[in-house]
Hints:
The protein is of the alpha/beta class.
Amino acid sequence: MEVSLSSFNRIFRPVSNPEIDWTLLLLHGTGGDETSLLEFGDMVGNGAAMLGVRGRSDEEGYPRFFRRLSEGVLDEEDIQIKAQELADWLQLTPRDNGYDPNRLIGMGYSNGANMAGAMLMLHPKTLAGGVLLRPMVPLQPIPAPDLTGKKVLILAGEQDHISPMQGAVQFGHMLADYGASVTTRIVNAGHGLTQDDVDQVRDFLLEF
């Protein structure tokens, strides 16, 4: 399936720190857009390039990266379709923006975190690693992927009732079983992001 560059709304900011050679793929939560994580990216990215992408699913007028069947129940078939479309599109974007596709880190929040996690499992060559903010297990991949060499940070909110921390911890164990180097941290927060998230993501990226 061919995917044109124009098929995803996106915003690209080139690297501002010559010592940083990776790009953050910013994947928003429900109702967000390609700009939603730019401010967070500025706070944690240490001058990295940033590629913000808008999800192409719609839920009552709110952009998402894939459908859900009900609250907390994700549409795994749609996840696979949407992950394939995004992976295909990302193969084209280096020609447009000039970043290194082998140094792309998926940084997603909520629905975007689930898409980043799905991308790691379904298309592991697409991302070098991930920062998953308030994720849950998006799907059970078959066959099991080989995530050896992938670095992943998962941040779960202790009081999160939308993406409960138990699901995030379970997802971390799953990715580790597939070979990823996973750091899972519980922050004193709900579903929203806090200064603790900023500090932990910044430290993680400095060592990436």
